[in-house]
Design goal:
Length: 303
């Protein structure tokens, strides 16, 4: 089992016990050139993303079984994909259909990817998210308080229906539960971390972690609060209850396809604007969602 991916994504699968090897695609390598390396060497090729480079890579392997998927209303892609793959799945995901018709249901992306396994001939489906962490990861974050509320500071906290000031107020409000409040961050939120730190609203603010160290912070937390980012799925892999604040636009699609997977969760919609009254309501909804997942009913633990 070989996975071809970017260097960014390699850290997600490098410890996966079901993966035998990883090929990291360089920025200068074409999908076709990588796919040609596997000619005569693989029986099945699966394009894990519904995009042309993945189709081209799978097609270039000339594996007997080549599987991929595309979206229901991408009619041109549905036609051209068959030049590269031998078996094509059609995802029901479509933002316009979701927003126009509340009856339009989109399955979680994990379930859609499992369809590719079935299409390739697999009969045993194991849907659990696998992200192994070890004692070295846990030791690296031993200074982070355990049993707390972990807020991941993704860039979407600071734009389009959320602001830096409102995010700081949200973190401050979460202190009412009497649990440690931890903030994690990556490079996308770096310019706002200093303001959060200066506000003194978190017991610990940690960044510069490896992927698995970051997951170890989630593992030792009671709950994770995040915007729509990879933190949602890392929290699911760590089996942690999760509150996710999705973008206002295409909320119905996002909250179905990319919601927390197989963990207790609440999906919330960001306000349409940064109007102070809308932001206040959003903060209240986040705190109420955390309360519900923690099983807290005391009115003092609400905004």
């Amino acid at each position: 089992m070989t996975i071809v991916c970017s260097s960014y994504n390699a850290s997600v699968v490098e410890r996966n016990p079901d993966v035998d090897s990883i090929v990291v695609k360089s920025t200068t390598s074409s999908p076709e050139s990588i796919g040609r390396r596997f000619r005569g060497r693989c029986d099945i090729a699966i394009a894990l993303a519904p995009c042309m480079p993945d189709f081209q890579l799978a097609g270039a392997t000339r594996a007997r079984v080549r599987v991929g998927y595309t979206y229901v209303r991408r009619y041109l892609a549905r036609t051209t994909a068959r030049l590269y793959v031998t078996r094509l799945a059609i995802s029901e995901a479509d933002p316009e259909l979701c927003e126009r018709d509340a009856r339009h249901v989109v399955r979680h992306e994990v379930e859609q990817v499992c369809d590719l396994v079935r299409l390739a001939g697999g009969t045993t489906i194991v849907p659990d998210l696998v992200l192994p962490i070890d004692s070295v990861d846990r030791e690296a974050v031993k200074h982070v308080p355990a049993g707390g509320i972990c807020v991941h500071l993704g860039a979407r906290w600071f734009s389009e229906g959320s602001t830096l000031e409102s995010t700081i107020e949200t973190i401050a409000a979460l202190r009412r539960f009497g649990l440690p409040v931890i903030a994690t961050y990556g490079l996308d939120a770096l310019e706002n971390v200093a303001a959060v730190r200066a506000a003194g609203v978190a017991d610990a603010i940690v960044g510069g972690l490896s992927f698995t160290q970051w997951a170890a912070v989630f593992e030792k937390s009671a709950i994770v609060v995040t915007v729509d980012t990879g933190a949602t799925h890392v929290a699911s892999a760590m089996r942690r209850p999760t509150v996710v604040l999705f973008e206002h636009r295409y909320f119905r699609l996002s909250s179905q396809e990319w919601s927390p997977y197989r963990v207790p969760s609440v999906c919330l919609q960001k306000p349409a604007t940064c109007d102070p009254s809308e932001l206040a309501v959003s903060r209240e909804s986040i705190v109420a969602a955390v309360a519900s997942l923690l099983g807290v009913t005391d009115a003092t633990a609400r905004v």
